[in-house]
Model the fold of this input.
Amino acid sequence: MPAQSVDTPTTTSRPRTERAAVRLEGVRKVFGDVEAVAGIDLEIDEGEFFSMLGPSGSGKTTTLRMIAGFELPTAGRILLDGEDVSQRPPFERDVNTVFQDYALFPHMDVGDNVAYGLMVRKVPREARALRVEDALRMVRLQGLDRRKPSQLSGGQRQRVALARALINRPRVLLLDEPLGALDLKLREEMQIELKRIQQEVGITFIYVTHDQEEALTMSDRLAVFNRGRIEQVGAPADVYERPATAFVAGFVGTSNLLRGAVAEAVVGRTGMFTVRPEKIHLGEPGASVGADEIGALGQIRDVVYVGPDTRYIVALDAGADLVVTQQNLATSSTEALVARGRAVRLVWKREHCLPIADLA
Ligand code: ATP
Done:
């Protein structure tokens, strides 16, 4: 069965793997009268960097905690490497978790923090020292093993937490918004680092985030969560270029929806359609429209200059607003800003006008 959710569309159909690293079957979780996870099916492959993306409260963390064993499902099954672990406690599952707040022991130095899992398993001191050295090298913290967590930066602490979680070489590493506490620049650096480390160790990573850019940058595949359900599973380019639902189109990128009478007037068909802002060309009102293109007249309502690009919000004569992004190849901020109020014709390729389902 392809990785997909119950009764919801997906653009990806993949051949069924014999034994997925993680498999969720009809998993549901209810807290009192809140249905946090509403029955999801998912398959995550061995060695995959897989992200669970969605807004706050959509059920990502609860799903992760059920895989870890910190929560038990109300219904459904969780299989790790083909084995049903649904009722097993966390320490009997070959997974490890990295939390956003690092959860380091403040009184222990970096070396002991990283070695902790090996000490619990009674690995002899010399073997431990070698593995700690190896783990610290992997996260590029060689030579810092005698420091206390309080003597490290946020990014360094996050690396210690990662080294500590990886030292036992779990089959699956679960990461719950691990970069959430870092500033933007450090977060971007750590995204690249995390991807490198995952490729080096070859362990399956399951990564929870509400940041679409983070999910698109790092993942081999991702699942988009909304209200306890998965609306789409696919590779980043699949999900971005071919969003299956209105929710996905809006959450992963800018939604740019055409529906109802506007769709009929602009696209010439009934239904709901989306077009990505960078696919639209902004031209003079007299600009020609080819046979394989769609054109729509409108007026620039607002201009947002964002350095490398400018975002134009265009009110279509047919009735909806569309966002258009243009690279500032030769445009200065002053030129961009005076475009407000100008009449324009938007033109885009028919193939970039994507029909989507509306589950709302
Ligand atoms: P965030 O990004 O904010 O962490 P999330 O997508 O991870 O959000 P969850 O933490 O899984 O979402 O929460 C899903 C829903 O379940 C929310 O409505 C939340 O309030 C509720 N919930 C989660 N844990 C509990 C709990 N222990 N008791 C009661 N309700 C809970």
